[in-house]
């Protein structure tokens, strides 16, 4: 999920994929650190993402970012899982813990996943492009903690032009569910766009 080409790419080697992979086993995430897993366990715990209208029922795992210049956000190698951006960035010379929103907290809680893979088939967010405003999303966290959301809009953006508003830790609670979409480039094996389902707490 790169922002202006330098901030938080999701997935593979070019840092430009939010969950699409037509080659091999999909975009490969970086290696998780014990610090990242500890942060996830203490902050929110293992969880599940449910979007009934598109058939999504996926485990959620913590995912950080690796690399220079803000790093590239990683998502699970298993395309049937999705990743929650947990704020842990492994730069070339240090481990940085950034403040991020957990689902339901002020700011944007970011969850990203694959659309598909030539090897593994349809991913957890294969039908994200079909989600409609008003659709319900449920995020289940540690010890059954549950937040419920209503989709407000579906946004399609170029991978090089993701909104900076995805990475905020203040203001009204929002949820952003992101995957690849749009045209598929057979030459690179990647989709050209990112699809973002924005949601607010259900009342």
Structure in words:
It is a single chain. The chain is mainly beta and 203 residues long. It is built from one helix and 13 strands; from the N terminus they run βαββββββββββββ. The protein has one helix spanning 34-43, and strands spanning 20-21, 47-51, 56-66, 72-73, 82-90, 95-97, 107-113, 116-117, 121-122, 136-140, 146-158, 173-185, 190-201. Strands 2-3-5-7-12-13-11-10 form an eight-stranded mixed beta barrel. A hairpin with a 4-residue loop joins strand 5 and strand 6 (95-97). Residues 1-41 have low confidence and may be disordered.
Mean pLDDT: 79
Q: Could you give the count of β-strands?
A: 13
Note the gap between the termini.
Answer: 30 Å
- C-alpha-based Rg, rounded: 15 Å
Strand/helix succession: EHEEEEEEEEEEEE
How would a crystallographer describe the biggest sheet? 8 strands, mixed, barrel
Oligomer: single chain
Question: What labels describe this entry?
Answer:
203 residues; 8-stranded mixed beta barrel; 3-stranded mixed sheet; 5% helix
In short:
Helices cover 5% and strands 42% of the residues.
Task: Write the topology of this structure.
Elements lengths: L19 E2 L12 H10 L3 E5 L4 E11 L5 E2 L8 E9 L4 E3 L9 E7 L2 E2 L3 E2 L13 E5 L5 E13 L14 E13 L4 E12 L2
Parallel strand pairs: 1-8, 3-5, 7-12
Antiparallel strand pairs: 2-3, 2-10, 3-4, 5-6, 5-7, 8-9, 10-11, 11-13, 12-13
């Amino acid at each position: 999920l790169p922002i202006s080409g330098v901030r938080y790419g999701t997935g593979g080697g070019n840092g430009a994929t939010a969950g699409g992979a037509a080659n091999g086993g999909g975009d490969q995430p970086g290696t998780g650190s014990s610090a990242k897993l500890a942060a996830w366990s203490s902050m929110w715990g293992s969880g599940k993402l449910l979007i009934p209208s598109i058939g999504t029922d996926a485990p959620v795992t913590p995912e950080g970012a690796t690399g220079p210049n803000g790093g590239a956000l990683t998502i699970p190698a298993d395309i049937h899982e999705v990743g929650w951006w947990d704020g842990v960035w492994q730069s070339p010379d240090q481990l940085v813990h950034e403040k991020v929103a957990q689902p339901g907290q002020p700011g944007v809680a970011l969850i990203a996943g694959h659309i598909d893979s030539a090897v593994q088939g349809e991913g957890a967010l294969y039908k994200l492009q079909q989600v409609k405003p008003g659709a319900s999303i449920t995020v289940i966290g540690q010890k059954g903690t549950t937040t419920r959301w209503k989709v407000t809009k579906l946004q399609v953006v170029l991978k090089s032009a993701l909104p900076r508003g995805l990475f905020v830790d203040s203001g009204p609670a929002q949820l952003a569910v992101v995957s690849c979409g749009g045209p598929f480039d057979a030459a690179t094996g990647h989709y050209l766009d990112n699809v973002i389902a924005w949601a607010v707490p259900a009342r």
